Description:
Blueprint: H1 2-11, E1 21-23, H2 27-30, H3 37-51, E2 53-54, E3 75-77, E4 82-83, E5 88-91, E6 94-97, E7 101-107, E8 113-119, E9 138-144, H4 147-166, H5 174-183, E10 190-196, H6 199-211, E11 222-224, E12 231-232, H7 248-259, E13 263-264, H8 266-269, H9 316-319, H10 325-329, H11 338-346, H12 349-372
Parallel strand pairs: 1-3, 12-13
Antiparallel strand pairs: 2-4, 5-6, 7-8, 9-10, 10-11
Amino acid sequence: PIEIAGLSGAWKPYTSEKQYCAIGSVKSNIGHLEAAAGISQVAKVVLQMKHKKLVPSLLHTARLNPHIDFENTPFFVQQSLQEWKQPVLQVNGEEVVYPRRAGVSSFGAGGVNVHLILEEYRAKDHEDMQEEFVNQPVVIVLSAQNEQNLKKSAQLLKAYVEKDMQEPRTTINLRDMAYTLQTGRNPMSCRLAFTARDLEEILEKLSLFLDAGEMCGENGLYVGYKTAEKKLGTDVALDDLQTVQSSAVTSEKRAELWASGKEIDWESVYQNEKRFKVPLPTYPFSKERYWVGRPQGDASTEDAPLEPATDAVGTESNRDQPETNSDRTNPTLNRPTVRMEENSKRGEPENRAFLAELYQAFSGERQTMMEKY
């Protein structure tokens, strides 16, 4: 209640509207994370911005706190999944679309007092910078550690482009896409490169590669499995790169050389224009599992005996003996708890010995504390 009252007081000088701002808590979903409580809420907000959805606080929202009068506050508890629409306001007679924003509070008894504002990132409109480059081909590059992952990268990029083309308003920029793949990824030994003038051509060539996977200059696909050898830039003769930098021939040559293992100074290619890195599919890791196996013939691989282990802490013979005064004063004679004994039975011999030593140490510390107080 005190947090809602504080937020309502902060809103009051600026608006009299009621229940227009969604509010929620991640603690109801995953519990209290102590020092990580605030950052977990930040992660929740960022994910909601990414997917443009408001998610409910799944637990304890059917019955709201009776000490909070939500009807007379600017807030309502988010109880269902719904679209997170951008706010649209009238400013000087015109509609202005504002970015999605959210406040995150983290107040704790330990002294944490934080409130921060998060605002979604919106790609800047720089179409005015594209006119002279609109008909020029770009070089699309992909690389991986092996052929299998190279194909996976191609599949991911193909799916990404297909999804983007289905959106009502396509936001992907071809040159930004090429720039991101060229400068935002580490070049690896297995490489694919080709030129394209639009998204349709990207899909066409990715499909050709996925169907064949062979190097074929006639199809405009360049595939190589060599390690990068040396760096090429505008200061190195590459079909007189300085004079034909914007030509289609140069783009094809760059694609061919890069796929064969050369490194291109991509930043110099864009020295006369400003490019942006955009979100694209990342590397498709193999997801192989590497479990530490037991040495062959290791006796510890045998199943634990059904009967209680006699070399664990305590023995079966003394388990039911009555506790004496010497048991309470001598930590080495204290009987283990059932939980400790059951756990020790399932362990390996060295683990059981360690548990015995650990139990004795704790028992001695406990006895010392009891004598002190």
